[in-house]
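re the bet — no i am not wrong, look at it urself. input seq straight from the record:
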Amino acid sequence: MALSERLKGVAGVEQVTAFRDALHVSGTDAAALDRAPRPLREGYEWNRIEPGLEDVFIHLMERRRDPGP
């Protein structure tokens, strides 16, 4: 959970969600997302995956709560 908190607010990271023993880190700018967590990758396994239905649902619910600019 400490990694989750450290990732929130990092440029390129729009969402951090815990799924079982993994974190799903997502954002809409793939290049920024690839650069964002590099300093935090040591000691963790990172894999690019396609978003699942749960990821999309959480993203839409977050946008609904905070529509932003």
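see?? Residues 2-65 form one domain. told u. also The mean pLDDT is 83. so pay up
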